[in-house]
Each structure stands twice: as C-alpha cells, then as structure tokens.
Amino acid sequence: MKRIGLVTSGGDAPGMNAAIRAVTRVACSQGLEVLGFERGWEGLLTNTFRRLTPRNVGGILHLGGTILRTSRSPEFRKRAGIRKAAETLALNKVDGLVVVGGDGSLRGALELSKETDALIVGVPATIDNDVFGTDETIGFDSAVNTAIVEIDKIRDTANSHDRIFIVEVMGRKRGFLALTIGLTVGAEVILVPEVEYSLEQIVRTLEMNGAKGKKSGIIVAAEGIGDTHKLLKEIEEKAGVEVRLSITGYAQRGGNPTARSRLLANLFGEKAVELLTNNQGNRMVGLEEGKVRSISLEQVCSNEKRLDLSLMKLAQTLAT
Ligand code: F6P
C-alpha cells in the first residue's frame, strides 16, 4: 500500500473535514501518499483530485461541509460510470480508497469494489445515522444538536402563545434523527416513518395534555412520514388548536461538528488507514458497543439498521 485515495460523497455531514484530516495525517505518518478526489464520485469520473498533505488539511477540523466538496452522481449509479472510476484508480496507481459518506455512497463503494483491484474502505458519515454496522455515523450528533438549539427556541414561543408546533427534521426515510431529537427536546409527540401514526392518537395526546394544563407542545416529525403541511391542517381541524410548522431542513447538514462527531471522525479515520495498511478492503469501519470495529461492505448493504423503539416509549413517559 503506497498511495490511497479519499473521497467524500452524498449529503455532507459535519465531521467530514475532520475525517479528511484524520485519514490524511494518519496515512502520511505511515509513509502513504493521499489523493483527495473532488466533488464525490465525480472526481473519480473526471480524474479530478488534489494531493492531500498533513499541512494542507490544517485548519479544517472544526469546519462543517467538506473541503473536497461532494455530489450525488447519477452517472456513478451506472455500470459504465463505476468502470470509469475503477480506471481512474488504476491510472493513478491508487492501491486503496477511503469513501466517506452515507448509505448511497457505501453502496457505491461496494459496487466499485467489484470492479477494481484497489481496496475500498467505507467511513460512515451522514446526519441520518441510517447505516447498518455502526451504532453512530459521523455528523449525526452534530445534526441532533443543531436541531435541539432551534427547537429549544421554538419551545419558548410555543409556550408564550399556547401553540402546538410541528418541527420537521431530516433523516431521509428513517427516524433516527427524529427519535433522538424528539427524546432530547422533550417532544410531546414523535413521528417516525418506522411507526405508522394515527391522527386520533396525536389529537388524544394533545387533548390530554390540554386537560392537564399543558397548552403548548412540540411534535417532532421525521421528513420521511410524509406531508407535514397536510398533517398540520388535519390536527388543527380535529383538535381545534392553532398549529405552526417549522422545517429545520438543510441547516442540520452544516455547522461546526460537535466533539462527538470529531471524535468519531478521528477514530474512524485512523481505523480506515489501519485496515488498508493491513491489506484489508471492502469493509466499513464502525462503532459497535463503544468500540471501533469493521464490517464487510456486503453486510452493510444487505442489512437494515433497526430503530430502537424502546426510546419512543421512554420519550412518551418523559413527556407527560
Ligand atoms: O442524507 C442526508 C440528507 O440530508 C437527508 O436527511 C435528506 O433527506 C437528504 O440528504 C437531502 O438530499 P439532497 O441534498 O440531495 O437534497
């Protein structure tokens, strides 16, 4: 292993820069060269990269986004695109590639591993935390904290106006973000795609709270549950209360990474280089019960991470 490539792909996540820095510095400390491919898979399709050195990855640890930039590449989803990326790796004599990204990027990594001799290692980084094989992804904690800051403020105005707020959070088709955010802001109701919601149940909860003197409330809804504008109207009509909608949206993807996201980036970055220097490829690094481990990309892509629904019950108990 002499030269490795590094790519950040898919939706950006706070801590991706910390991962770039960690991979580069650990790799260089072991005498490896690092090429950073630009704009996600696009960089491998167009052979666009820059040499990363311990010095030029300085000053980025605390920054959101990714200095390598990222993209969602439709061309890379096709076999021809994947072959082109494999050719780029061969052309530049890249022996190993670290792919930093979420579910879609790791699927891309698996497909690429079938077409190249280079060893591929995935580093899970997505605010959604929906990657099988790791308890947590880089960026998740940062996105949770960003949403908490916003929802705590919404709580103030909700209390002042005796209003119900629906706060829609990101998470793609999964409810990891919504559940953790809901629990940690003390949401009265949490809606996740994994559990079908009932309008009647939501209204009953709000009415029971009203009867107890709790006139305001926060409903944290994952974007994956569907149309929150429609839900707002339905709750207003059925419960006869004023409801407002706030969508946290892309702000959750940006901002400085929290200590937790930086820590994961450092640990995962180190482990990714360790795998490559031990000639182990086609794996993803991850966190399992507090320990950094690795798992095959095949397993990552053929399993679905489970949402811990016991947290939902706890949230309900705590929000009485
Ligand atoms: O995967 C991260 C994420 O922010 C999801 O939460 C969201 O559904 C999606 O990306 C948005 O994707 P795009 O950046 O393509 O609009």
Helix content: 40-55%
Principal-axes shape call: elongated
Structural class: alpha/beta
Spans with pLDDT under 50 lasting ≥5 residues? none
Strand order of the largest sheet: 3-2-1-4-5-10-11
Q: What ligands can be seen in this structure?
A: 6-O-phosphono-beta-D-fructofuranose
Cα end-to-end separation:
57 Å
Radius of gyration using CA atoms only: 21 Å
Return the string of H and E elements.
EHEHEHEHEHEHEHEHEHEEHH
Biggest beta sheet attributes: 7 strands, mixed
Give the number of helices. Answer: 11
Instruction: Let me know the number of strands.
Output: 11
What is the overall pLDDT average?
A: 97
Short description:
The chain has eleven helices and eleven strands.
Tell me about this structure:
There is one protein chain. By secondary structure, this protein is α/β, with parallel strands linked by helices. Helices cover 42% and strands 18% of the residues. The protein has helices at 16-29, 41-46, 79-91, 103-113, 140-161, 176-185, 199-211, 228-239, 259-277, 297-302, 310-318; strands spanning 3-8, 33-37, 49-52, 96-101, 119-124, 164-169, 189-191, 217-222, 243-247, 283-288, 291-296. It has a seven-stranded mixed sheet with strand order 3-2-1-4-5-10-11, with helices on both faces. Strands 7-8-6-9 form a four-stranded parallel sheet, sandwiched between helices. Helix 1 (16-29) runs parallel beside helix 9 and helix 3 (79-91) packs across helix 4 (103-113). The N and C termini lie far apart (57 Å). The mean pLDDT is 97. Bound molecules: 6-O-phosphono-beta-D-fructofuranose (F6P). 6-O-phosphono-beta-D-fructofuranose (F6P) binds next to loops.
